[in-house]
Amino acid sequence: MSEPDEPDESGADEDSGPAGPFRQRNFSLYFIGQVISNTGVWFQNLALQLVVLNATGSAQALSGITIAQFLPIFVLGLAAGRLVDRVAPRTVLLVTSLLSAVVTAALALVVSEDPDLWLIYGLVGVLGSVQAFERVAAQAIIFELVGPGSLSSAASISTIALAAARSVGPALAGLAFQGFGAAVCILINAGAYLVVFGSRWMIRPTELHHRDQRDGGVRPRGRVPFRRGRDVNTLLVVNVVVSLLAMNFGLVLTSTVDLSYGGDASAVGAVHTLNAVGAVLGGILAARHRKVSVRAMVPATAVFGVVLGLNAAAPTLVLFLCAAPLLGLGVGYYQGIVNAAAQESVDPRFIGRMMSWMTLGSYGMVPFGALLMGWLIDASSGRVSLAVAAASALACTVLVLVRTAPARS
Fold first, then answer.
1. The pTM is what?
2. Given pLDDT bands bounded at 50, 70 and 90, which one contains residue 10?
């Protein structure tokens, strides 16, 4: 067994905490690549949204982009997990980076003032199929980058990449769209995938931590089943409920600012930016935990539910903007804890399958959550949808509290 698989106790404290994983070169390369990738996606998403809206003026036509992007994850997510447990995640990520660059470049060629929507939907669907494997492999590789000692911190920190990109991506994408148009925005994303390929290529395979052994135990021969115990099933249920009812912020926050408060585009941009800044802080707080169990989701879901309630109760746009960073903090802390708990709750050999279930629950629920929350907002308001989200998060707090309670002797 190679040295990276057996970190000694003296280095455990040094590698724990928010800064610990960055002391490992491979993780730093991975994190930089994730920030670049997530920022590039904002350029493409904004461009496609504006192209479709300008051509059709239809929110239903726009929803087709979301469905085409995320439905393949719902269909292929579990197959991706099985693949990632058999093929090195680094290899999967190298292949998906190149395929994503090719498909994205093709997408840039078909956007126009009078686009063929079905061709766009088709290419977005192909890209979503590639991303089904990309998202699972990006989570499964974390253990191999840092090993068991820093796994919780690294899993929490990985969520910061998404929030960091969200804090700058929309503004940069808007400037690029105004100055250069949709095709250039999408080509920027294609170029970002090539840069990400380079960062992943630089990850040294010889320094990765293998997932076939743990605590000195030798991997059994033959096919070992992936079993989901009580804690794991609780985590998966909470992930689905929260993703479905409480994580549709692109739709909910925009609709709340526009329809409930009468805010303009600058107010929409401000609430998303403030939310993203708070999410970075929340991810950092989550990364301070050296080990995370499913039980740790009790405070995470409770805090998330409370800040959702505060945002729902805000009577004015000014107070809603003031509450936005708190909501972001709750989101970032929850995501950091739930991702770390998922990584820690299974044997390393089955991280790929575990994260495929998590991906299925989070990204796979996006189309259904968008349809449900869109209907609720049209029938009531964005503030009501936030109140429903708060209630769902607090209900999950009770569920985790009950199902993870220590057994009485």
1. 0.79
2. very low
